[in-house]
Structures are given as structure tokens and as C-alpha cells.
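User: I'm curious whether this sequence folds into something compact or stays loose and floppy. Could you predict its structure so I can see for myself?
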Amino acid sequence: MSWRVKSMMEGPVVLADLGMTFTKGQIRDLDLVGREHAEKSNDIRIALTKGWLAELNKDPSPVREDVSKGLKEVAEKVAGNAERAMAAQAQVIAKLEDQNRRLAEQLERQAEKDGQQSEILDKTTRILDEIRAFADRDPVLLKSLREAMENIKSERAVIAEEKAELGASGESQAEIEAHERILQLKDGKLEKNFEDIGKSISKEADSVDDALAAMDELGL
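Assistant: Here's the prediction. I'll summarize afterward.
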């Protein structure tokens, strides 16, 4: 390591804060008094600025190179830690966003389910109210209508059995088809009667089975 300067003056150049004096044309190595000490000298800075001394060469300071290298390593380490921290944070944020999305979907499904259940409960309540009101007005008629519906269900069940047994009856295909049409017409008429009776009891009921279930719940 060397930091050599040369006197450019005819007379002496005094660097009081370094305890050095240059004679005409003298070359001296400032590193002999310590690089750090020399670089802090106001006198050397003024002498170089005024041209009293000329800098011949100034090798890099090993200490500074080590410091620079250390700072670079620290900076790289900090940058690496920051990058890893940001990546970890991004993963956490992505995970939270996914959890929030799934929670929102779950809440939405639950709200829809609750709405459907509430609607079903409301509809069931209206059916019960209608049948209860009908029973209050005419309990005898309600009983008769229920018996009629039960009979219709039984008759339709018999028709269904007859349809299933047509193939094994030994009749010709034409006779089977004719018989099937008769059974179908009879079943259709019973179904209409069944629905008409059910609607006369409860307009809110979507089917006669709903009306019958409501009557069962009310013990009618």
C-alpha cells in the first residue's frame, strides 16, 4: 500500500497536523503516518487543492476493501433475507386470501341453505295454517276428503300392479295395449281427482302428499 505525494514548491511545505515537512521536489509516502490519519488531515487536503503537493499514486486501502467487501456481504445477506421474508409473506397472504375465499363461499352456501330452509319452513307453516283453518270450518268434510284421497292412493296402487302384470296375462299385444290405455285413463282421472282434492284442502301444497303429511302432523 502506498500513497505518494511530491512537493511542487520552491520552499518547504509544512503539514502541521501530520508533523511532516516537504522540501523542494521531495517525495514522501503518506501511508507512513497511517492512511486513515492522513486522509483526515486538513493540511494535506489544502496542499493538494492548492497544488503545493502533487499526488503521484494512491493504492487502495486494504482496510477499506475489507470494509467494502464486508458491507457488500452484509447487503447481500440483508437482501436475501428480505427476499425470503417477502416470499414467505406472499405465501401467507395467498393462504389467507384462499381461506377468506373458501370461507366466503361457505358462508354464501350456508346463507342460501338457510334461505331455502326458511322458505320451506314458511311454506310448511302456511300449509298447516290452511289445513287447520279448513278443519276448524268443516272437520267432517276434511275427514271425508282424507278418506277419499287414501282410497284414490290405494286404487292407483292397484292400477300400477295391473299394469306391471299385463305382460304375463297371456293376452295378445293388441289386447294388452288396449287394456293399458284403459288403465292409464283411469289412473289419470284418479290422479286429477287426487290433486283437486288436495288443492281444495291447501292451495300452498305442491302435492297431495304434502297435504297428507300436514294432516298427519296435525293429527287430523
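Summary: The chain has two domains: 3-59, 99-218. The helical segments are 35-39, 42-50, 62-137, 139-165, 173-201, 208-218.
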